[in-house]
Design a protein that fits this description.
This protein is 23% helix and 33% strand. By secondary structure, the protein is an alpha+beta fold. The strands form 2 sheets. A 6-stranded antiparallel β-sheet has the order 1-2-8-11-10-9. Strands 4-5-6-3-7 form a 5-stranded antiparallel β-sheet, with helices on one face. The protein is globular, with a radius of gyration of 18 Å.
Length: 201
């Protein structure tokens, strides 16, 4: 039997009633919305791995795989996050391919918030809260790792030369955003219009 059906509901922002974007000039913080996030975990089943390798085989070690409208983030042995645009057929496709006795496909979207940090000083901003070497050679494009940002657990994905996605538990998203905003203000010497920001939430 395939894994139990996953329910893909309408995306709800983690950070308020409006789209969250803060542009500090040399660095920008935004929430990525309209995404479906599912965790895929497989038990020891070489035949199943071979059958779905066109999808899961796109990830190489700690480097994410990519396709049209989706990304596959490797988390550990036979464990991935599939991140796709809402309406993608990939979550249902994987669910139909993975029997209950061979693995699981579980929706995580409602429990996660995805923050995108990009811009010329994105590495400088993240270095304030993450104790990793984010130099291009040490953490190349596509790299995925679990780490802490200001002691908040995140999955970090380098989506481009100066673009990073942080996957954080929904309940910690606001705290992480507040800390990133303070870092960005310090980094760029740019203050925020706090009354307007509060009114938008």
């Amino acid at each position: 039997m395939p894994s139990p059906a996953i329910s893909i509901g309408a995306w709800r922002s983690c950070l308020g009633n409006t789209e969250y974007v803060q542009d500090f000039g040399s660095v920008r913080i935004a929430e990525r919305t309209s995404l479906t996030i599912v965790e895929v975990a497989l038990w020891a089943n070489p035949a199943l791995l071979l059958e779905i390798s066109p999808i899961l085989g796109s990830a190489n070690g700690r480097i994410a795989g990519h396709g049209d409208g989706w990304a596959l983030l490797p988390l550990g042995p036979q464990r991935w996050h599939l991140v796709s645009e809402s309406g993608s057929a990939w979550p249902a496709t994987l669910r139909n391919l993975v029997p209950e006795d061979a693995g699981a496909v579980i929706e995580l979207g409602e429990g996660r918030c995805v923050l995108r940090v990009d811009g010329d000083r994105s590495v400088d901003l993240l270095a304030k809260g993450i104790s990793l070497d984010l130099d291009d050679a040490a953490f190349p494009n596509g790299q995925v790792t679990g780490t802490n940002c200001h002691r908040i657990a995140v999955i970090l994905h380098r989506a481009g030369p100066r673009t990073f996605d942080l996957y954080v538990y929904r309940g910690f998203a606001r705290s992480l955003v507040d800390l990133l905003e303070l870092d960005a203000m310090e980094l760029t010497s740019k203050s925020m219009d706090m009354p307007n920001r509060l009114e938008s939430q």
